[in-house]
C-alpha cells in the first residue's frame, strides 16, 4: 500500500484513489497521468472538483511540481471534470 497526499485538500490516501498530474510541454502545462507512470515529478489529487479548485487557487500544483512557470488554466479543470464524469 502506497500513501500519497492530495495537493488540494492535503489529506493522505492510497495511491489508487488519487489522480496523478505531471507538467509537460513548453510552456509547461498540467497533464493528467492516467497510467501513473509518466516520467518526472508528479502531484496527486482526489477525483473531486473541490480538491482541484483548491489546488488551482492555492497554486499547489506549481509548488508540488516545482514549476512556478506552470500554466494552470480552465482547460485543466475541464479535462479533470470530463475524466470524473467518464470515470
TrEMBL record:
Positions of the YlxR domain: 4-67
Domain of life: Bacteria
Pfam families in the cross-refs: YlxR
Name of the protein this chain belongs to: YlxR domain-containing protein
